[in-house]
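Give me the 3D structure for DUF262 domain-containing protein.
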Amino acid sequence: MKANPTYLLDSLSNNDVTFFIPPYQRNYEWLTDNCKVLLSDVRKVAEANLSSVKTEHFFGSIVYVVEEVGFGVPAKYILTDGQQRITTTMLLLMALRDSIEDSNYKTEIQRRYLENDRADESVEYKIKLKQVETDWEAYKLLVLGHDMPESLKNSSVYQNYLFFHKALDSFPEKDKKMLLEKGLMKFSIISIQLEPDRNPWENPQEIFESMNSLGKPLSLADLVRNYLLMGKSTRQQSELYNGFWLTLEKRLTGKLSEFIRDWMQADQHRSFKVARESNYKELYGAFKEIARKRSVEELFESFVRFSHPYSIVCGLQQTGIRDLDQVISDLNVIGVAPAYSYLAEVLAAWESQILSDGDVVEILTGIRTYLLRRRVLGITQAENKFYPVLGKRLVDLSESQDKAASLFRQLSSQEYALRLPNDDEMVSRLRSLNFYNLGRSRNYPKLLLSMAEQHLTKSRPAWDDSRLQLEHIMPQKLNADWRRMLGEDSESVHQELVNNIGNITLIRHNQELGNKSFDEKKETYAGQSGLQVTQNRIIDQDAWDVASIRRRQDYLIDLITQKLLGVPATFKRASNWSQDDRVSSSFDQRATLNPLIGESIEFVSNPAITAQVISDSKVLFEGEEWALGPLTKLLKQRSGAKVSKTSNFHGASNWSWDGIKLVDLDV
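Predicted structure for DUF262 domain-containing protein (667 residues):
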């Protein structure tokens, strides 16, 4: 390692060097606020030096690896640290060049700092700082003084240049020159050259990760990209980045970290924590274990293959098949980010022609039914950890003759918390449910009524139609006319049924109908604003009272349970969860618990209840040591279950680790 104190602009003016930002680095991300701080620091240093107070500003370290490229060509300084600061400095220099009127001064800034006199006209070497691909076009146009197309004007590179240029407009000409001569020229740095060939401990990857552990953390995608590209030559890095990673960035803009985590789930068929800033490093550690025995090319190819079905599942692309695109849109309205890994696996099987068009529509419709039935009952528990396990069973599903029945068997084979609600549960809940306020932003009632309209007319109302709104037939505020219609018990009827499913409908209308009379509302429903689901069991009524609301309630509940969210006959009245605590006699609990010593396991019926494994036969719960069987019996009794004195429970069926029942763990 060679460390040399120097000045930033002295480094940038060296014509024997061209700085390269390697593909494993993150994109340029400095905000306008960062630029304000830099300009303020430059101004303070300039003003101090103008007042005869000799001042410098330490601008941190610049870390790089030198790559020789042949005689007559400037050496490549491959930046490991300093990308954001050097890029922002270059943008400030461009803004100074473009705001100063002195043509000689302009030429000198361009010649000394922005372009390289020693390089030929090959732009890659002629420009002093080669950006990563996503920032390169905008940066190159700014350096060369060309017009910026509209498509690039939102880039951080252009926006920060624009900030500097506008800020400098208010400076007199001499002050602009002093910003450079007395300010920026006094910014000192430590220039650090790594020598990994001589000193293996100067590993650029480890140093890159270490130096980025402070400040804004690297995302999971940043860490993975770094891991896969670091150690390759710049030519190989460019080929891999342009051939693979750039495809991911374009296809999954803003979702790459979530994608990496979901790829891991699909690859391993186990759950991982949701990708958040707080656990990026933990997920990165798990990724390295997965990647350890695979080539970089193999991993990149797997990413790109998975990214296409994943982008469809996320709603970023469409298949062009109406029914398939519709059910995917519905799933995203429901909110299925935890299921993306599994849904992308299903679509990948479809793209590989393992599943037909009809098969994939049938499977995703089944998932929609499963989720909406659970949302009606207000159940979301444990779903995160279930989907990766479900992906392991996709082969069995693809080979079955009856895809719907096979899927619902899989969905009904889990613990109670993951159950498929049957028709009895659905009917009971829908009768008493505040249907109007079901789900965030009332998306679920709007979706269910849109599905009902499609069932009745073969036409789905456009989801983005600004006129589409939920409507209370009996209004939320009663006037005298409505009270007379409802009779003596109007207040209690209103309180009980105003948000009942029978009183909620869907219309296309530009304003609320409020407490208009029932006759006026019927006229609107019968016209262009009305949908079929709004006309059925409404406009044929003379009055809107308890009997009318209950009549339409039963009609809609039957439509939802039997048609829109129908399940095969064997699941309609069944207990659709695993009832079997029996396990094979070949199961070895000690072998399963031994690798889990020190880990927490969850009680399947209530994952909020946890115990710590302390040996190959005991767990710690509420300060006491327990065998799993007796502890399971205790917790069953606490939950109110009928447990006889002679009842025995096999703990491995009732406890899970990382979302997988102990009995199903591979040991």
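Residues 589-664 form one domain. Let me know if you want a second pass.
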